[in-house]
């Protein structure tokens, strides 16, 4: 059996592969926290208060922060002046959102669950931003480039059990 990325089933596996690869690359391994109601409220405020420009600032800063790793430095030519400016930009965004727009929710999280729980509140925002990254056509194209070198037949044979195959058939029938 051969599943090309040009067949519907092949495209489905390619999409799943792209999503999994990007999620792993962007988010790494994230500990899922059991969020309390105050963390949920702050998460909601963060999502509502973050603009497209804010997300761009976070994305740029994250890229540059990751590029500081010795194994990634050679792929980036960001200079110290740019790094400093991105640090300042991110600090302004975080301060505006946490202090100006979500102050009461931030105080409630700190009082109920401690300062570290403020970081937990960013998990949903990070997930949404990661999904938006995956929707970018250029990023999707790059991920598909990787799939040219993945043996989709091996993936299908390894993971497509008869039970899963039947479930896929049920989903297609709906």
Explain this structure.
Keywords: Signal. It is a single chain. With 174 residues, this protein is mostly helical. It has 2 domains: 69 residues, no CATH class; 91 residues, no CATH class. It is 76% helix and 0% strand. It contains 9 helices and no strands.
Keywords:
mainly alpha; 2 domains; 9 helices; 174 residues; disordered N terminus; signal; single chain; 76% helix; flat
The major sheet is characterized as: none
Share in β-strands: under 5%
**Domain module count:** 2
- Unreliable stretches, pLDDT < 50, 5 or more residues? 1-33
Please summarize what this structure is.
The protein is mostly helical and 174 residues long. Helices cover 76% and strands 0% of the residues. It is flat and about 50 Å long.
Helices and strands in order, then pairings?
Elements: H1 8-27, H2 37-49, H3 52-67, H4 80-101, H5 103-113, H6 116-135, H7 137-147, H8 152-159, H9 162-173
Helix pairs in contact: 1-6, 1-7, 2-5, 2-6, 3-4, 4-5
Signal peptide: 1-35
Keywords: Signal
């Amino acid at each position: 059996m051969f599943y090309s990325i040009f067949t519907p089933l092949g495209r489905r596996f390619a999409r799943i592969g792209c999503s999994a690869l990007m999620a792993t690359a962007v988010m790494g391994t994230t500990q899922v926290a059991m969020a309390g109601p105050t963390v949920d409220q702050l998460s909601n405020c963060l999502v509502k208060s973050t603009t497209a420009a804010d997300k761009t600032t976070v994305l740029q800063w994250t890229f540059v922060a990751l590029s500081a790793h010795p194994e990634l430095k050679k792929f980036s030519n960001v200079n110290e002046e740019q790094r400093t400016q991105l640090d300042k930009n991110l600090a302004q965004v975080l301060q505006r959102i946490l202090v100006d727009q979500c102050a009461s929710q931030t105080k409630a999280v700190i009082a109920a669950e401690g300062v570290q729980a403020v970081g937990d509140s960013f998990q949903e925002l990070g997930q949404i931003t990661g999904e938006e990254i995956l929707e970018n056509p250029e990023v999707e194209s790059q991920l598909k480039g990787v799939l040219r070198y993945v043996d989709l037949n091996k993936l299908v044979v390894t993971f497509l059990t008869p039970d899963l195959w039947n479930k896929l058939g049920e989903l297609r029938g709906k």
